[in-house]
Amino acid sequence: MSTEQETQLTATRYRKYVYVWLSLIVLTSLTVSVARLHLTSYAILIAILIATTKAGIVVTFFMHLKNEPLILRLMLFVALLAFTLIALLTFSDVWYR
After folding, report:
1. Cβ of 31: how many Cβ atoms within 10 Å?
2. Alpha-carbon distance 95 to 71, whole Å?
3. How does pLDDT run across 61-87, given as a tens digit for each residue?
4. Is the Cα dihedral 85, 87, 89, 91 positive or negative?
5. pTM above 0.70, yes or no
6. Domain enclosing residue 10, as ranges
């Protein structure tokens, strides 16, 4: 592989990580905006959904899950889904007290 091809490949990788980083910043800003809107009990639900999305992005790109076998990705997805549901059920108990 020539030096020019390696440089182009490296630039493509860095560009992808910059886009991922920018998306995480946008989602963090969205979380802060939702918290300032004072949507009562829905703010927690929206914040958890945004946090789950951000966790999925981090796991997919920074932990290279997208290159893993399908079964591993499905297992992690089920675990994250279970965690999110448990957290939502916990908060729903607090909401209706």
Report:
1. 19
2. 36
3. 888 888 889 998 899 889 878 988 898
4. negative
5. no
6. 3-95
